[in-house]
Design brief:
It contains five helices and no strands. The protein has helices at about 5-30, 35-90, 95-115, 135-145, 150-175. About 10% of the residues are buried.
């Protein structure tokens, strides 16, 4: 479950509890004339009224934890695939083996993204848009390089494009994580 869906569900459940509180207060105030009959019934049903949304909220947090775990694994695999692609453009020793390994890792990462996210604007008739096109662009760059002999300038250009696409992925992908600023840091400026 994405952060946006989790927050939406928390807000909806909070609104439900506010409504339940309002209904309970209304029954209490208006019940004075009728021996608190409706308030008594509300009080008897309140454990059920309270338990169901709480159970659903627990389900939401569990789905978020599972999603977060899948996201972390995907992130690790994407780092490996992109770094392999960057290295392929810098140090080409066993070109065919490195080429195939880089393509395989990128292909796996592309499909892992599909396992974690729906395509954007996907419907039953339209396949939508892949959520991280930069990853597919890196695949295309490595695929175009192939095992051919490229001069140093072409490889540097491909390397720069891969790094640019990677920065785009990082910027958008990491926003989904629940990250915090460290309490203690080792930075150059501190």
């Amino acid at each position: 479950m994405t952060k946006r869906k989790l927050i939406r569900n928390i807000i909806l459940i909070s609104l439900f509890y506010i409504l339940a509180l309002f209904v309970g207060i209304t029954f209490y105030i208006t019940g004075a004339n009728e021996d608190f009959r409706y308030f008594g019934m509300f009080k008897e049903l309140f454990p059920i009224i309270a338990a169901l949304p709480l159970a659903y909220l627990g389900f939401c947090f569990q789905r978020r934890a599972n999603f977060h775990s899948a996201l972390r694994q995907l992130w690790v695999n994407m780092i490996h695939a992109v770094n392999k692609s960057i290295l392929y453009t810098e140090f080409r020793v066993e070109t065919e083996k490195e080429y195939l390994e880089a393509l395989l890792l990128l292909s796996k990462s592309i499909d892992e993204v599909r396992g974690v996210y729906f395509n954007i604007q996907e419907t039953s008739t339209d396949k939508g848009y892949y959520p991280f096109e930069s990853l597919k662009s890196i695949y295309t760059i490595v695929e175009q390089i192939g095992t051919k002999d490229f001069n140093e300038a072409q490889l540097r250009e491909a390397n720069a494009k891969i790094r640019d696409h990677w920065q785009t992925i990082r910027k958008t992908f990491l926003r989904e994580f629940d990250r915090s600023e460290p309490t203690f840091a080792d930075t150059i400026n501190s």
